[in-house]
Amino acid sequence: MGKFKYYKELITAIILAGIMVLVALRISDIASGLDVLITAFVPLIVGACMAFVLDILVVRYERWLWPSIKTGWRYKIRRPLSLILSFVTISLIVYFIARMAVPQLVHSITLIVAAAPQLYVDFQQWIQHLSDTMPLVSNPTVVNTLNGESIVNYTREWGTKGGTYVVNTMGTILSWTVNIGLGLIFAIYMLLDKERLIMQGKRILRAYAPDTWVNRVTYVSKVAVQTFSSFFVGQFIDALILGIMVGITLWLFNISYATTIACVIGLTGLIPLIGIYVGGIMGAVILLTVSPMDALIYVIILEILHQIESNVIYPKIVGNSIGLPGLWVFAAVIIGGSLMGVTGMIIGVPLVATCYKLLMTDVEERLASNEGL
């Protein structure tokens, strides 16, 4: 019996070693297969994320639409009606912001492109003037770098790269458009059958896992859902406050397109940390066609408001809504952005907040049990 146990362990070790060698030899094929598998699940993942965000509005509409009704036709249409109202709400917000911001942004870019030839001529005259008055600028290396032919060559090179980038971007946009469309359909089905899906998940857990694991998974899921929901609501409130602050301040300083820029800042402010910079650049482009001085004043105002928002408002609103101290909010944004870009910034804060809540609860329970001993 002892020999059988010895040989059994030896055979198991040999099989595991063979599997590891096989994986190491075919790692590229395995990675390609995983990539194909993940790509196939992208619409479902996108749909699940959309369903989660939409459910935040759906739940709130259901609280207003006959919350005490449990039977009858009103109960049957409450979920579809709440879903429709959620789509209408999001569509109206996006339409309002796009209506205010996009036409002015396109107009500003058109004016900048139209003025580019004259700006190029003025730049050449300025370089010529500097080369006549300053010996350093008259250096042949500097002059050759800044002359018209070099700039044209640089522009042509970047134009070629830009064309390739545009083609690749268009393909990516088309792919994501299809994924978002399929994900939206999947999200609708998930929301309509939300209760049944939750019940099926619980039944599967009870069938294949002990009760302790079922209770643990249920608790973790509940904390995660509450934390992510609170984060998205807090992020929306923070972006709304920032947009209102920017709009009122620009109006007080008599800066043009205050409402348009406020809408842009409010929309891009939904992205943690980096969103205000994207909106700030768009606002500066709009104001450059009106007055460079207005654009400079706008940049100074935006930076001051950004410091107030990032150091006072954001930690209080988002941090308090998810129960995470301000220090960890910024740490989560920085680490999430480094790992996964914009997506990591968005999900990093609620993910860290969920782990923080679970850790603190476990610490309190362990300390309480130790004190009881």
From TrEMBL:
Subcellular location: Cell membrane
Keywords: Cell membrane, Membrane, Transmembrane, Transmembrane helix, Transport
Transmembrane segment boundaries: 36-59, 80-98, 173-192, 231-253, 259-278, 285-308, 328-356
Record InterPro entries: AI-2E-like (IPR002549)
Primary subcellular site in the record, as a coarse category: membrane
Gene Ontology, cellular component aspect: plasma membrane
GO biological process: transmembrane transport
Family: Belongs to the autoinducer-2 exporter (AI-2E) (TC 2.A.86) family.
Record's protein name: AI-2E family transporter
Organism the protein comes from: Veillonella tobetsuensis
